[in-house]
Amino acid sequence: MKVQVNNKEVETDASSTITKLAGQLELPSNGIAIAVNNKMIPRTEWDEFLLHENDRLVIIKAACGG
C-alpha cells in the first residue's frame, strides 16, 4: 500500500503499523514524533496503530540548539 511521508510517496506492507514503517524507514528510536492525517500519535500507540492506503504522515525530528 502507498502512504505519504513528509510529502513523499512510500510503499509499505498492507498490515503496516507506525512501528513497522519507522523500522522500514530506519528512523532513530528516540527524538522523533509522528502525526498521521494531522493527528499526533503517542509513541505508546505506535505498535497497534494500523496505517491505511493514502494516509499522510509527518515525521518531526528533534534538533538541539536554540
UniProtKB/TrEMBL annotation:
Pfam hit, one: ThiS
CDD domains: Ubl_ThiS
Domain of life the protein comes from: Bacteria
Species, as recorded: Jilunia laotingensis
Protein name: Sulfur carrier protein ThiS
PANTHER family given in the database record: SULFUR CARRIER PROTEIN THIS
